[in-house]
Protein 1
Amino acid sequence: MAKARTPRQKMPHQPPDVRRGNFDEVALGYDDETAVLEASRCLNCKNKPCVAGCPVEIDIPGFISRICERDVAGAIGIIKEANCLPAICGRVCPQEAQCEVVCVLGKKSEPVAIGRLERYAADWESEHGAAARIEQAPPTGRRAAVVGSGPGGLTVAAELARRGHAVTVFEAFHKPGGVLVYGIPEFRLPKSIVEREVEFVKSLGVEVRTNVVVGRTLTIDDLFEQGYDAVFVGVGAGLPSFLNIPGENSLYVYSANEYLTRANLMKAYLHPVYDTPLRRGKKVVVVGGGNVAMDSARTAVRLGAEEVRLVYRRSRVEMPARAEEVENAEEEGIIFELLTNPVRVIPDEQQRVKAVECIRMELGEPDDSGRRRPVPIPGSEFQIETDTFVVAIGNRANPLLTKTTPGMDTNQWGYIITDPETGQTTREGVYAGGDIVTGAATVILAMGAGLRCARAMHEYMTAKPVKH
């Protein structure tokens, strides 16, 4: 148990006063010695609960032991046997709620920093040009189409390519990556890293076609007519939800989707090199308590806001955002208006937002989510002055693809109905996973769904005769 006495190694960060003024990555990563010291804390448990806690089933003790031995090339090789996006997962996955929460060391001490070690191995691979060798099966003659190049789609594509299938990924935007490029800010996930991971998937023989909106440019039926044997749908849940309060259609009221897409994918953060239209407000209000709300508020700070307030209707305890992101936001000077809910947007004479009227809340009995239900306090209304208002309260399923796919059933909220084990939809040969099935969730859960779907698609395609 001597290893347990070594404290968990802290991740170096940019200081808050510095990072407020740039879009560079906040967390700076472990150096070699820190990574080895952190890896030495692993107890290499016999039953490996961390592996069971990982949605993509990485051999976590295996790769950590390689880091201990300073065989980082071996470590990244083990990781990539299960995960084609390790540099991304090491940065944005909620390890504290998955692999790390079941770490045996965490019962008496702090858990091993599994995510940070995964990031270290992935970054080492890039810095040393030591690409992990991935074994691929010979060509099977089968073709698979993947709709959406987010984390679920990329996982399916990589897994099927490794099994010998020809894979084409169709992406609606002009760059692949899905939420990884349009939703997550540069300071949390640099776009160069997403590009690097996509290039790895392409190196397996995967073709990526951008600017193709399946459901409009072509349909699922068209894909089968073009000779694809199976189709995976991983289009996410990109239709933003709004508050439906008076004045919400005022100018400079954004959905978080639009705000972050303009800032990230359309590169407003690189102004004036890119002249993307985006309000660079001085007093910004963001409503929501998840990671997207934190990303929006922290983006506003970096775009030059003098005051950013985050309005959330419950207390900090109920916030769904990662604790690390909440702490980062607080360090960067974002003001939290907790137990507060907007009830009206107030525009000026030009219909531009000038204030948000809110009401104080108190917590009542738990609701369906298990969190205590927020209840308005009568007569507690007050106003917050603002020139930019960002609504970050979640997304819904976009019906564009599902409405053009006969035989593929959806539930009452528009999400695709699937077999939970295989991802098979009610339409033969069509599989689905990620947010378009579950509603908004995490990158790694979408990847876990992609892994299950890829296995099922492989069995489905190989059971059929080759038609090409």
Protein 2
Amino acid sequence: MPLNLSREPMPEQTPAKRRSNFSEVNQGYGAEQAQREAARCLFCKRPTCIDGCPVHINIPYFIKAILEREPDEAVRRIRLDNSLPAICGRVCPQETQCEQACVLNKKGAPIAIGALERYVGDHAIRECLATECSFQEKPYKIAIIGSGPSGLTCAGELRKLGYAVTVFEALHELGGVLRYGIPEFRLPKDKILTPEIETLRSLGVEFQTNALIGQVATIPELLENKGYSAVYIATGAGSPQFMDIAGEDLNFVYSANEFLTRMNLMQAYRGEDAATPVHVGRRVAVVGGGNTALDAARSALRIHGVEHVVLIYRRSEAEMPARAEEVKHARDEGIDFQFLTVPVAYLGTPRGEVRSARCQRMSLEEPDPSGRRRPVPIPGSEFEIETDSVIIAIGTNANPIIAKTTPGLKTNSKGYIVINESSETSLQGVFAGGDIVSGSATVIEAMGAGRKAAHIIHQKLSPQK
């Protein structure tokens, strides 16, 4: 039988329709579409796709169950490795990880692994399928700080191994960056995120919200006074970066962290019906080239009354770290891309509100340490972009609360926690992973760190005899 080199297309809302709503853009496979895509898998003897996955999901194993029209079995199989398949299927960059490693990539389109993962995860939520596992309860309690993707994954893995697990979340809602950082049109909170978390709760994971570790309790207190045998720090990197240029203190200049938190966690996407709507005016400028910048730009475009959104990025499109799919969606929706451009100042009105971004054109020279070509200013190329608001999405820093309240916890010059190859920090019994260690990375990389740490904690507390 000849190879099928063309993947099953993902149904999606049209650009004209979706730019005025916050419903999901990608609509997901139906059963027959998933069946046709699964039939393309070669089920290689050495499946390189697994090597490309940071969580090392046994991808052919769950795809085979789809092919055999056994979606319940596909759920069971994927949950052996991944506690959050409906989330990963939506937000992970499969095109640069598992799908890039697919052997079909050499001749045509790789298997749509992300779309199939989403199909399985959505089936589990729709059918309310509980995670099947049997374990012997261990006599240890584990504290996990942060309920983002790394913390949730670590919690799920440890609970399946029999440990009592408590997740401490500083905010009033669970999910970390999945809750406050990713727009509704990419990850529906009530439909997808909350049910995935409830699956972990049904396993016996305990969650405490409004619990800022470092304030309500310190890590030494958790270990010495609260009876925890180990702590996993998964607080992410949520402190915004700025460019330190004139005008950043003007009204309606937002960090992407603030803007997306208000849009998502505080549900400003509901518009005037929201308790805390976000004012952006008719014209919005977003600065940055990553997924967060794209999320901010596409969210702003959907706010009632917005007429024009421009994304300002100092390099070319080829250097953008954002997912290709997100760039395409943004362009289709009408986002105006200004490449090789950087703001040098923001200008304000007499009332202290931003009115324009003074920008400068750039050219690219030899690659910098990141491997991307270094942008340099072109003399005499300054110009202005009129705007009613600015959203700055150029990266994040580590939150310093944990480090400041944990004596002896080693951090690097940027404030990120230092760990060894076993995910251990400088303190005995304290582990860390995700963005608080690596800096801003992908959801699946954070999950991989959480899964690795869970199994290392298990090996140390319950060594095989």
Protein 3
Amino acid sequence: MASTKGEIEVVPVKSADRVLTLIELLTEHRDGLTFTQLQELTGWPRSSLYGLLRTMADRHHLEFDPHSQGYRIGVRIWEAGQAFNWSIKISELAIPYLREARERLNETVQLAVLDGIENIYVAKVEASHPLKLDSFVGARLPAYATGIGKVLLAGLDESELDARLKGVKLTKYTDTTILSMGRLRQLLRDVRTQGFAVDNEELTLGVCCWAVPVRDVTGSVIAAVSTSIPSARVSEEIEETALEVLTETAGKISSQLGYKPQAVASDEHG
């Protein structure tokens, strides 16, 4: 029904109303809802619902999980209004573990999620050293040029990776920036195998980074943890310690999210 405000008639816009309804439903169901569940809850025509979901997912206001076939709130909503509840939850959950890692390493430790082909930092704990990474929560960086971003890209299945990299031009930031799509894909395969990624001054001269994945209850990579260390302080011993601490840290966060490595491995092997 139309309403009035002064002499201006305000008419509800059906498509906008439906978008807001979807956001509200998925805010209430933080683990996500399938297309069928959303159709049952809304009663909308299947074609209309599919069009809305596809548009919102393409714009990253919703995220689609190929494992559960469910939709959930996306990173754009969090970034615009700090209403990305899942990201807030994981960042709040992760902070104590990031602080613990910082105490052990005395280096900057951060948590990031993926949006398109950019990683967005959602939590960060600073080192006490005067020489440290100049970044901040909410910052966006090209995933292919960071350790944390490569972990996140490696967590995508091949079809999703193809879609995100299609038409992308790799920009040079330093002499070690990856500029070949073929080399990038090979590195991502290596990351999947070895379980970590490295940034060897690929984005910023004088800064190296090590990163490992954070997984949810399905085993999907939903975030990553990294430490950034000025190259002047890097040594083989520091690298080994950093990977050990990061792996433990990511494991604790993943466990809090319901990830059980043995159970997932058992399921995968029938």
Protein 4
Amino acid sequence: MEAGDEPVTIHICVTCGTSFPAAPSPPECCPICDEERQYVPASGQRWTTPDALAAAHANAWRQVEPGLFEIETQPHFGIGQRAFLLRAPQGNFLWDCLALLDPATVALVRALGGLAGIAISHPHYYTTMPDWAAAFDAPVYLHARDREWVMRPDDRVVFWEEDELALAPGLTLMRLGGHFPGGSVLHWQNGAEGRGALLAGDIVQPGADRKSVSFLWSYPNWLPLSGGTVARIAARLEARAFARLYGAFGLHIAEVANTVVSRSAARYRALLEQDQP
């Protein structure tokens, strides 16, 4: 480095986990947080770097069912994202993404056979996706309707435009919209012991009771979707068989998830339409 040159590094938003191109200093703001579906904390915008993040955090792994591993950063970072590594005969796929890609995670993923691809539900999970793509030489599948939220463009990103995309036999991406225009879920036909599973991020979010789901425009700011949008999402999901649903933030619906989604969508619409005493 010549005299006067400043070192450049990737900067990561502490609040949401989104990474930005390498530069001597962080951006003035994080567009992901400075928008009504997310937030800037009262304490103000803060930044970290990949090295600083790895020094203070580690990724924890848990097998949630045969062929499916949950990966979560500890202590809590960003919005508390969790990712899933799904093992399939055609290769492994990463569902959603974490800001932290530590050496242990790289070693474990490679030991399990690497990645055939990465698919992400919506922009709150884009995090450090170019680093994951580079580490495993894997394409990243994002819906084209959310193209504007990619903060670090990368040649490995594949923008798909249809309402469905088959990643492999029995693995189908479905654009449902709602939370984001390109908001997507992953239907895993062989999940839940062959009864089907849905990996949904928070496009369809399990409730704390694990007997219901909800659909929101903004989760931290409690802004709802319209009843018509929820009805459309529910109708799309009725065409797929799934007994289990894995949502965001450690929550899942273990059984009869398709029935739970249909019942919850009807309840959601009823609450929007009725006057409360």
